Amino acid sequence: MSRFLDALRSGRVLLMDGAMGTELQRAGLKPGECGELWNLTHPEKVRAIHQANVDAGAEVLLTNTFQANPAALQRYNAADQCEAICRAAVELARQAAGADRWVLGDIGPYQSDVELQGLQTLVKALAQAGTDGFLIETCSDPYPLLNLWKVLDYPLRQRFPVLISFTYRRDRDNQVRTIGGLSADQIASWIDDCSVPALGINCGRDIGLPQIAEVVVAYRGNVSRPIFVRPNAGTPKQVEDRWIYPHSPEYMASWLPELLKAGVSMVGGCCGTTPAHIAAFKPIVDAWNARRPI
Question: So what's the architecture of 3-288 in CATH?
C-alpha cells in the first residue's frame, strides 16, 4: 500500500500546495515561455515556490510538470528534454518536501494520440525520479485516465496511485458542467466504477466557491473514496498587462469549513492562489483535524 494513500485515507485532512503557473509568472516567467523548462534553467525559483508552500504548511506538493509531455514541449523545441525536466521537477519538489511530505507528479490534460505516445516517457521519468503518485488534473472528460491506463502497467499502478481532477464551468444554461458537458454526478458515477483512489475538482471558469461546494456534495453522493479540491482564486480580470485574481486568502479560507463538512479529504489551490492562501488554510485544516470548533 502507498504511504501517501494511507495518509489520504486516514481521516485526517491533508493540505496541498497552491498554484505553480501563476507563481512562476510572478517570479518572472514571460508570456509564451515554457514554465516546465524553468526546472532546468531557473531551478532556484521553482524550488523557492515549493519551499514557500511548505513554509505555509503544505504537506502535498505537485511537480512543475503540468505540460511536460514531449508533444507539448515540442512547441519549444524541447521534446528531447522531457526526462531531464521530470527528474529535475521531482528533485526540486523533494528538496522542499523532505521525508515527511509527499510529492505527486503533475500531469495536465491531453487528448491526441501524439500526446499519448509521449505520456509513457513522462510517467516513467516521474516514477523513476521518486514521485509518490500522479495527479491528472484539469480534465474535462474521463478519457485522459483511460489512456493513462494504457501506458501504466498494473505493477506501476499498484506502486504509484493515480488521482484525477476535473475542471468545471458555468454553461449557457447556467449549469455547472465540464467543458465536455458532463455534470459532477455523471463524473462521480463513472469514477465509482474505476479503481481511482481519489476524485478532485480544480481550476474552473465562471464559478466560485459556492459552486465548488456543490460539486463536492455531488461527488460525495456518488462515491465513498477521498475527495480533494484545488480551486482558483476566483475568475481573473485583465488589468493592463496583468491578470488579477479577486479572491483573497481570507475569503477562500472562509469557505473551507463548508468544504470540509461536505467531505473533503485534501485541499489546496489552483490558478492565482499563493503561499499566503495556503497559510490561511492551515489553521482551519489544523482545527478540523483536531476536531476543534472552527
Answer: Alpha-Beta Barrel (3.20)
